[in-house]
Design a protein that fits this description.
- The chain is an all-alpha fold.
- The chain is 67% helix and 0% strand.
- It has 2 domains: 32-75; 85-170, no CATH class.
């Protein structure tokens, strides 16, 4: 496509038109989406290429995430694992305060913090005994960390080990 010659007078109206269009168009920017999905993209990338992952996300889940964005994330696993871990680290640290084992040990166990008890009596007892902050931390870990396949979590360990040391990561 050939671009027409643009003078300063024409250019002055382009910016406002672009901004006006962006306000009326469907919102497509989901900054951080690739970080939120990174563990799953990372795991899927062992069997699928970025284009196939992108196609699946769009077709099956209605999520538009380009193959270029996925490839970029996969080329920087340390950065993206750390950005993902930023979301759960505060909860892990809260939970770690009452745990007799280092954070690294409970985060990389195969099964941990399984589903909440369905029995109403056990739920009431747990609610009375566990501080609200700890219960909230457990919920975050359960839904953001332990939802990730165990083998994928193990592959994250080398990228996160510096944050899980004994010093601050009991």
């Amino acid at each position: 496509m050939k671009t027409k010659e643009i003078n300063d007078a024409d250019l002055a109206g382009v910016g406002p038109k672009l901004l006006a269009h962006s306000k009326s168009a469907e919102f497509t920017a989901r900054r951080g989406l690739v970080v939120e999905l990174f563990p799953f993209i990372f795991g899927a990338s062992k069997r699928m290429n970025a284009k196939a992952i992108s196609a699946f996300l769009e077709k099956e889940q209605g999520i538009k995430l380009s193959a270029v964005t996925i490839n970029k994330a996969l080329k920087e696993p340390a950065k993206n694992w750390n950005l993902f871990f930023d979301q759960i680290e505060p909860a892990a640290r809260i939970y770690a305060k009452g745990e007799p084992v280092p954070m690294k040990d409970f985060l990389f166990r195969r099964q941990y913090l399984l589903k909440k008890a369905e029995n109403p009596v056990l739920k009431a007892i747990a609610t009375a005994l566990v501080p609200a902050k700890v219960a909230e931390a457990c919920g975050i870990l359960r839904t953001k960390w332990y939802l990730i396949d165990w083998e994928v979590r193990l592959k994250a360990l080398p990228f996160l080990e510096h944050r899980l040391g004994e010093k601050g990561g009991k």
